[in-house]
């Protein structure tokens, strides 16, 4: 039965009737498996993963921890640093705190630390414009990151673990972004984005991007498909962000990346479903030890 989750967060049935939480849980528990394709806060930050897990619905997506870490761009930086992967130099500005750019070199990118869809992302040429940009980014949520603008090719790569436990990477994809600009909300959804697959980067950068994506997939504990977005600079790849629930429309990056390796959209979905552990942990209420004996264990 189709369900719609509205901007207000309410779950509605086909008659547009708001479903009480227990009814939504009832519907979920009737599913054989779920492939979460929900974005943003409560979509890909672990909330839906936790709901599915507690309901005992096998999921083709990342678990709570990976979703929560991936959604938090500051936490992602810390994990990346611990794995030896560079990210943009940045200052985290907490709720109510004044903008600080000490130690950062302009231009800057100001953005919510847990944003998405390029909402609230601003390029600022000099320190004088940062306070205003922080206020505007805050409208999309605290805390806010002030990053150095990273000049380089914007290159994404996707990873999923297949039913045999092997990691499958899509082809690299370059997003055509005007120099000094950003991949903005309009281009993401109006079909005007220019993608080049595979990305026109040299073999060393290609290898570095792919190795970093694999380290991040494992380090964060991802499951299902995740997309890792880099800037390829003269000094090698710099991680921009991690998407544990990447866009999956036919025009989105991930399906294009796998299509370029010979795995079409239907095949990709079939692979993601085939990798879902077949055994769901038993409910602790029944006094049994949780089991996970799926093919990907
Ligand atoms: N530090 C940066 N340097 C250069 N461009 C950036 C930087 N941070 C973000 N961008 C640009 O802004 C876009 C959106 O930022 P991103 O951090 O990916 O936010 P979102 O989660 O909304 O996609 C990126 O795709 C990139 O084009
Ligand atoms: Mg992004």
Shape: globular
Indicate the structural class.
alpha+beta
The total count of helices amounts to 9
Order of helices and strands: EEHHHHEEEEHEEEEHEHEEHH
Count of domains: 3
- Please give the CATH architecture of the largest domain: 2-Layer Sandwich
Portion of residues in beta strands equals 15-25%
> What fold name goes in the CATH topology slot of the largest domain?
D-amino Acid Aminotransferase, Chain A, domain 1
Q: What name goes with the CATH superfamily of the largest domain? A: ATP-grasp fold, B domain
Beta strands, count: 13
Using only CA atoms, what is the Rg? 20 Å
By CATH reckoning, the class of the largest domain would read Alpha Beta
List of distinct ligands in this structure: adenosine-5'-diphosphate, magnesium ion
Please bin the fraction of helical residues. Answer: 25-40%
Give the uncertain stretches in residue-range form: 282-297
What is the makeup of the main sheet?
7 strands, mixed
Mean pLDDT: 91
Q: Ends: how far apart?
A: 31 Å
Description:
The chain is of the alpha+beta class and 297 residues long. Helix content is 29%, strand content 19%. The chain folds into three domains: 4-61, no CATH class; 67-86 and 152-274, ATP-grasp fold, B domain (D-amino Acid Aminotransferase, Chain A, domain 1, 2-Layer Sandwich); 89-148, ATP-grasp fold, A domain (Dna Ligase, domain 1), CATH 3.30.1490.20. The strands form three sheets. Strands 3, 8, 9, 10, 11, 12 and 13 form a seven-stranded mixed beta sheet that branches. It has a four-stranded antiparallel beta sheet with strand order 4-7-5-6, covered by helices on one side. The radius of gyration is 20 Å and the shape is globular. The model is unreliable at 282-297 (pLDDT under 50). Residues 88, 109, 111, 115-118, 121, 147, 149-150, 154, 177, 182-183, 229, 240-241 line the site of adenosine-5'-diphosphate (ADP). Magnesium ion binds at residues 229, 241.
């Amino acid at each position: 039965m189709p369900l719609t989750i509205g901007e207000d967060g309410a779950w509605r049935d086909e008659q547009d009737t708001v479903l009480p939480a227990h009814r939504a849980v009832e519907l979920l528990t009737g599913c054989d498996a779920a492939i979460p394709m929900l974005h943003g806060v409560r979509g890909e930050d672990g909330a839906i993963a936790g709901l599915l897990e507690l309901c005992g619905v096998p999921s083709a997506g990342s678990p709570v921890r990976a979703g929560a870490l991936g959604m938090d761009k500051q936490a992602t930086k810390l994990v990346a640093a611990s794995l030896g992967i560079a990210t943009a130099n940045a200052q985290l500005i907490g709720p109510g705190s004044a903008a600080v750019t000490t130690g950062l070199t302009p231009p800057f990118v100001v953005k919510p630390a847990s944003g998405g869809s390029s909402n609230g992302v601003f390029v600022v040429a000099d320190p004088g414009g940062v306070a205003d940009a922080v206020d505007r980014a805050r409208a999309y949520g605290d805390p806010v990151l002030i990053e150095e603008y990273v000049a380089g090719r914007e290159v994404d790569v996707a990873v999923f673990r297949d039913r045999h436990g092997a990691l499958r990477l899509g082809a690299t994809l370059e997003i055509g972004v005007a120099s000094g600009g950003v991949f903005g909300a309009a281009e993401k959804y109006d079909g005007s984005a220019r993608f080049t697959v595979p990305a026109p980067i040299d073999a060393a950068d290609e290898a570095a991007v792919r190795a970093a994506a694999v380290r991040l997939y494992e380090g964060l504990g991802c499951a299902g498909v995740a997309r890792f977005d880099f800037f390829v600079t003269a000094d090698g790849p710099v991680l921009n962000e991690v998407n544990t629930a990447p866009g999956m429309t036919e025009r989105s990056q991930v399906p294009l990346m796998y299509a370029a390796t010979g795995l079409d959209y239907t095949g990709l979905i079939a692979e993601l479903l085939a990798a879902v552990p077949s055994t769901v942990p038993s409910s602790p209420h029944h006094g049994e030890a949780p089991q996970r004996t799926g093919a990907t264990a």
